[in-house]
Amino acid sequence: MNGFDTAWLPPEAFGPLGARRTLIRGSGPLVGTVRDEVARACERFGGEVVRDGSYDLLLEVTDGGLGAEEFTCAREGGTTTVTASNGHGLLYGLFHVVRLGAQAFTGGWPREVHRPATELRMLDHWDNVAVHPVMGQVERGYAGGSLFWREGRAREDFARVRAYGRLLAACGINAVCVNNVNVHAVEARLLTDRIGEVAAIADVLRPYGVRTHLAVTFAAPVVLGGLSTADPLEPAVREWWAAAARTVYAAVPDFGGFVVKADSEGQPGPFTYGRSHADGANMLAAALAPHGGTVHWRAFVYDHRQDWRDRTTDRARAAYDHFAPLDGEFAAGAVLQVKHGPMDFQVREPVSPVLGAMPRTRLAVEVQATQEYTGQQRHVCWLGPMWSEVLGFRPEGESGPSVGELARELVAVSNAGDDPFWTGHPLAQANLYTFGRLAWRPDADPYRVLDEWIGLTFPSAPARLVEGLHAVLDGSWRTYEKYTAPLGVGFMVQSGHHYGPSVDGYEYSPWGTYHFADRDGIGVDRSAATGTGYAAQYAEPWSGVYESAGTCPDELLLFFHHVPYGHVLSSGRTVIQHIYDTRFDGVAEAEKARRVWAGLVDLVEPAWHARVAERFEEQVRGAREWRDQVNSYFLRKSGVPDAHGRLIH
Ligand code: GCW
């Protein structure tokens, strides 16, 4: 390994392409990137970048009426042709050819048009410039330090950032926000006197078609500008932001825009001035509009200081209650960035009702690749199937559009850092890759995407390795769910760092995260009839489906209902027996995955194999801890013995 892992772009992935004769037509910086990629592959594999004469592959910028990121690919008469209307599309076309491997030069097929379904496919980095005393450098980061920042400033050596940009382009990601949405004092200044550091990063990402975005604090006019207010309707404040945007664009001409976490978990926002979130977002959209930028305004607004005794406040309702009434009020340059579920990236949540309730708002769906609540990159948890379920959900039922169709943009909190394997757990690379490909095509089959990832990461993998990787990854999210959170209950984690079990870890906290287990039953009543009314935030058919415990899907039962332990699920099992069984099954599955991985030792590069093997030890230990704590807790609460008489402590 040359300092860091090649992930899904090992040199061998360029073998078929690099052995051929390629003609490249077009000019501009991204065509330059394409040319460099092909030239490098040819140097290694004996092919040639030709200027004329015969060729096997034509990569051509033409005026073919294609959109900015689109490309076509065809193969006729022994020649493969990729066309695009600019360098960006051509770069995506090149990586398409890489993905096809030898197949790109075999047989023939008519012209196919490839275009992304979403305009923006972004990674948000929760990276701090300075190391934060509690959160460390990367908030919820499980892959070492930041790729961008080191020792309080932008890195001097950008080799790693360049390699990152390349990996992102190869899976279709076109935007990165380079700092944490919780904007601390040092990071606030990236907007003003430290914009040069952002510009340096943008320069490195630009050749891969990745635009740079910045998280900013809503209080910037006060904390940086010395104004007495940050009121979004105050002319001096609006002018301050307009001037700030001008400075940013002078340094970064293709700057993507701002990301804002306002009135959320202590961050400042428009509520301080009695203004709405549309007022706040629109002010920033107005500042960015003359330059073509957008503001990503996060919908993660809720009361994080609630009284656990108060059963009427329901955190799950918060985003909808705050934002749905504002539909139609957001400016064209404002994107509302909505977490995929109503709570906070738990292992299982329903899809956020906000996504079906704001047809006149530009929506981005936010998912979490960094595994805060899904094993922190010590456990294998491939999130493709979860994201795919979210994107396939149809808020108005079968005849209506899917979330993937409603979302104009997809955003993931990145799971990458300066760890040699990028993601701490090497298999977590699959999450990053899968996110990019699902963002490009939300209706893609995640298991096919995983095949692609395997094909690229392990070129010419024998069938035993391909099968082994599928065996370890395919069901890993459900395995994780089995030993952790039953039936849609969340937050049974240790408080603060969120790793490992603590059934009551958040039960009496101010964060709005309760399961209400007592001796008789468990779950949150979110029905309209007797509960918090959250179920009514959905349109039919879902409001009806979720309203009744009889029709609510098993996996979400305790999210929507408080039921007795003896309640019989549609699976035929009681809730308590389900809790016991799934814990035992989850541990058995984790142990099996560990065995499968051990059996691949001869097929995977030793350092790679060893890192995963080491993580599996921790995963199995952790899974047993989850099983024993959760089962013991519920045995003690309910007094109901396990029907199979297994050991519960
Ligand atoms: O999941 C929670 C995390 C916070 C995070 C917040 C958010 C960046 O625990 O660390 O803050 O969500 O999404 O803003």
Automatic annotation (TrEMBL):
<dbReference type="InterPro" id="IPR011100">
    <property type="entry name" value="Glyco_hydro_67_cat"/>
</dbReference>
<dbReference type="Pfam" id="PF07488">
    <property type="entry name" value="Glyco_hydro_67M"/>
</dbReference>
<protein>
    <submittedName>
        <fullName>Alpha-glucuronidase</fullName>
    </submittedName>
</protein>
<dbReference type="InterPro" id="IPR011099">
    <property type="entry name" value="Glyco_hydro_67_C"/>
</dbReference>
<dbReference type="InterPro" id="IPR037054">
    <property type="entry name" value="A-glucoronidase_C_sf"/>
</dbReference>
<feature type="domain" description="Glycosyl hydrolase family 67 catalytic">
    <location>
        <begin position="113"/>
        <end position="397"/>
    </location>
</feature>
<dbReference type="InterPro" id="IPR017853">
    <property type="entry name" value="GH"/>
</dbReference>
<dbReference type="Pfam" id="PF07477">
    <property type="entry name" value="Glyco_hydro_67C"/>
</dbReference>
<feature type="domain" description="Glycosyl hydrolase family 67 C-terminal">
    <location>
        <begin position="423"/>
        <end position="646"/>
    </location>
</feature>
